[in-house]
Amino acid sequence: MISRRDFVIAAMAAGMLASGARGAFAQAARAGRMTQDDILRFDPVGTLTILHTTDLHAQLEPIYFREPSVNIGVGEARGLPPHLVDEAFLAYYKIAAGGPEAYSLTSLDFDALAGTYGRMGGADRIATLVKAIRAARGEGNVLLLDGGDGLQGSWSSLQTKGEDMVRVFSALGLDAMVGHWEFTYGAERVQEIVDKAPFAFLAQNIRSAEWQEPVFEARKMFERGGARVAVIGQAFPRTPISNPRWMIPDWEFGLREEELQKQVDEARAAGADVVVLLSHNGFDVDRKLAGRVKGLDVVLTAHTHDALPAPVMVGSTLLIATGSHGKFISRLDLDVKDGKVAGFRYGLLPVFSDAIAPDAQMAALVKELRAPYAADLGRVVGQAGSLLYRRGNFNGTFDDMICQAMIAERDAEIALSPGFRWGGTLRPGDPITFEAIANATAITYPACYRNMMTGKQLKDVLEDVADNIFNADPYFQGGGDMVRVGGVGYAIDIGQPMGRRISDLTYLKTGQPLDPSKTYAVAGWASVNQGVEGPPIWELVERYVAATKTVDIAPTASVKVSGA
To answer: Which residues, in sequence order, are CB contacts of 181 under 8 Å at separation 6+?
Structure first.
C-alpha cells in the first residue's frame, strides 16, 4: 500500500518536473505529436548535468519494447514504484492514458499506440540528444554515465564480444560504466575492454578470489559544472550465481556495503561535492542500500529495467531509474552550492525514433558495425500473428514461443526458459527476422539441453527461483523474473515462505497433476554449468518459426498468481 509520505514525495517530484520534460509531454499529447524540441525542452538548474543510460543490451537500432503488465513488489516495496503498472502507474504519476508517456511507460493499448508513436531508441538518436544537451549546457558541464548491460544482447555484440558497443560508447563520449552481462564474455575479454576503452569501468565490489584485492577501479572523480563529482561503480553483486561462475573463476562479487560506505567517506574527504553511485544492483536493492549507506546524493539504478518519470527519494538521496533498450535517457540537473546539492531538476527523456533526427556520424558507425552481419540480421524467418513480448514477472508471449520451440525441436514434454528481460517486442504482422530471435537469445552459453527431471525436482527449481525473485529482503533478491515454463502450469502464492509458494503443478498436455515421482523430458537453455551440450537456442527457435510460419500466441493463463 502506498504511504502518505511516498505519495507526497512523488507529488513534489512531479511538480518539480512540470517545468521540465514532463510539461513537454503534456503539450505534445495535446497537439497529437512529439518533436525533437519537445523531448529536449528542459528548464535547467545549476551548472551540472548528469546523463544516464542503462541496460541498452547492445541495441543499435530503434525497436518496439513493451513495458510489463506484471511487476510485483514484496515486503516494504509492495505497492510502491517501480512495482506499479498500467492504470495504477498512470494514476500514481498523474499521466493521461493514450499519450506518449503512457505508451512509453506502460503496456496499455501497446499495439495501437505503437502505430502512433513508433519505435524507440537507436544509437544515432541517443547521440543526437546527448550532443544537443552538451551544446546547450557546455561540454564541461555534462557527465555521461552508463549503468551496465550495454555490451550484450544482440547478434553483432555476440560476434564481436562487445566491441561494437565499445565503439558506440566511445563515439558517444561516455565517461564511465559498470557491468553485469559484460562479464559473460569472460574475464580475459572484460579486462581487454577495460584496458583499451577511453571510458572508465568502475566496480568497487569485485575482488580477486586469492588475494581479495580490487580488480577494477572503484571510483573516479570528475570535474563538471564547477563541481567535483565522485562516481562509485557497483557491478551486479550476484553475477557468479546468475551467470556462469566458470567464466570469471578468479573474481568475487557481493554487495560490500561496508566497503561502499568507505568509498563514500573517502570521496568526501577528497573534496567531492557530489557523490553518485553508478549501480547495477536492481531497484529494490538500491532502495535499501540508499537507506543504509550515508552520504550518497544520487543512485543511478539499473538491472531491473525500471523506467520512472520522477526520482524516488530515500532521505535526501535521489534514486534514478532510466529503463532499458535505449528507450530513455535520464537528465539530472544539480544545483551545487557550498560543497553540497542545493536543488535538482529531473527529466526522463523518451527516445522516440520517429521524432529525433539521427546523428549522421553515429548512423554511419552503426551501419559500419552491422554491415558484416546484415544478411543474417535481415533474414525473414516467419511472421508474428500476435503481439510477441517478454517483459514481466512471468511468461511473456515471446518466451512462450521459445518454450514451444524447445518442446518441438528437442522432443520434450516440458520446457524451461530463463527469466531474461532483454529483447524487443514484435507487433502483429511484423516479420520475425533472425535479428529479432537473436535479440532475445544471443548469449555466450546458448546450448539447449534435454534432461530428465522428476515432478519434485521441477517444483524445487520453481521454488528456488521464486525465492530469488520474491524474498521480502531485497538483499536476498536476484532482481530477475520467474523462469518461463512450457508444457506445465502452476499456482504461486507470493506471500508464502520458501518451499511453500508453488502448488498445483499440472502437465498441460493431459490436464493431470504433475507426478512428483515421475520423470519428464525437460528442455532448457542458458544453464550456468560448464560443458552443457546441445544446439544453440537461436537455431532451434529459427527452425520452429520457419516451420510454423505465423506465430500466434495468446498470453498464458497457466500460471495462477496470488498473495501479491
So the answer is: 57, 148, 149, 151, 152, 153, 243
